[in-house]
# Entry
Amino acid sequence: MASASSSPSGICYLVGAGPGDPGLLTLKGKECIEAADVLVYDYLCNPEHLRHAKPGTERLYVGKKAKDHTLTQDKINELIVKLTREGKVVTRLKGGDPVLFGRGAEEAAELADAGVRFEIVPGITSAIAGPAYAGIPVTHRDHCSQLTIFTGHEDPTKEETSLDYAKIAKADGTKVFLMGVERMEEITGKFISNGADPDTPMALVRWATHGCQQTLVGTLGTMAAKVKEAGFKAPAVAVVGNVVKERAKINWFESRPLFGKRIVVTRTRQQAGVLSKKLRDLGADVIELPTIRIEEPTDLLAFGELVQDCHTYEWILFTSPNGVDAFFKMFDKLYTDARSIGGVRIACIGPGTAEKVRARHLAVDLMPEKDFVAEGLVKALKEHQNLENVNILWVRAQETREVIANELTGLGAIVDEAIAYRTVKETEDNLEALARLKNEGADMITFTSASTVDCFMDLGVPLPEGCKVACIGPVTAAAIKKHGLSLDVNAEVNTIPGLVAAIENYWKK
# Structure
């Protein structure tokens, strides 16, 4: 650790962001992202890691790929030193591990020379995770107990290679090399010319641990031709050795039911994670394309006054998880004791909303058995009790249909509407995802509310050819049909798990 002479409050974390799967980011890495004032991130970093950043965190992309550098390495070094000297918490995110062929050691040396504080936070390297996600263990008792890792892309300013291919070719065990796709014919040729058996099993894993992972299997003698034939491109990790044979038995990642399907999630950035994770767990390549974001209501004072009086009502109705979040954010500003909510009973429109309430250690007194829509909630209340002169506080979005107020008022209830939040179009936090959708296409797009449909259509981005449409329930389905889209999947159970189950069943057909 370098001592800080000029910037006692500044520190730079050199963080390994892992190979791509969001779940492979370390807890320490996540903490560094959460603490950052500035995020400086690479081409191979999964953009979804950025969701852990606190509001207002500056994000600087300095990605480098072959023949296309946003900033040179010298400029990156200057940048992180400058930011740290300014007293900022800088989190430098690097794909995989920061010091395994990642030039993190060079960045650490620059920070040390500048006299600013820094830490190196190791990450999971694709050299091991890539083969593992392709069903290839890099060591195995039946095959080998030795592993050699080398780079296929050395410093281009060096006149001669520092790699001794004669030793590497003759070394026992598994060989793994990174960044060598463009030199595949040269590298495999050097192996063979130095005595390696051309029939040695070999595999390449592209975009390892991502939903778009591709694996190419061959031998040392055939791989160069296979790369050309398949048009196989970087980034990829290569593994050479008999351990490749294990793939036939333990290829777990690519055998999941939604593997190979690219699915778009249009929920808010804060909410997308639940649906995205469930789809990824089934193997999908997920594009998070938020079409909406949540903002405070126009009249925050009026909302606060209703929350302040919440204990005077007989019922509080929550019709969305966002409503629960907004309500208790205001409640916590007004009260320091949870018991201030009084003896009011709570009704929720569905399981997702109820889960948010229960997270506050509050019971949910009423929820529809199956119809998780406004009409279902009204029906459940009506069957539960006589609503004549019952005081009800309905916590809702500004744009919500008036079904609940109209129906309950017609039944004699006294309904106050607490406008808790507004749903507005997302115009900034989806540019990278839009580019992916346009360039890579998608097999399916999901909608979880009418507003996500409306705001997606407002983007003016045509759906890729053959892209299927899935939604969570009847209200969202009506919005889809209103815009002239064909609906392919409609969840029978109007919940996120219900939507995921419907999507999985669709691709089983």
User: Anything to note?
Assistant: The mean pLDDT is 92. The chain has four domains: 11-123, 128-255, 262-291+428-508, 295-425. The first strand starts at residue 11 and ends at 16.
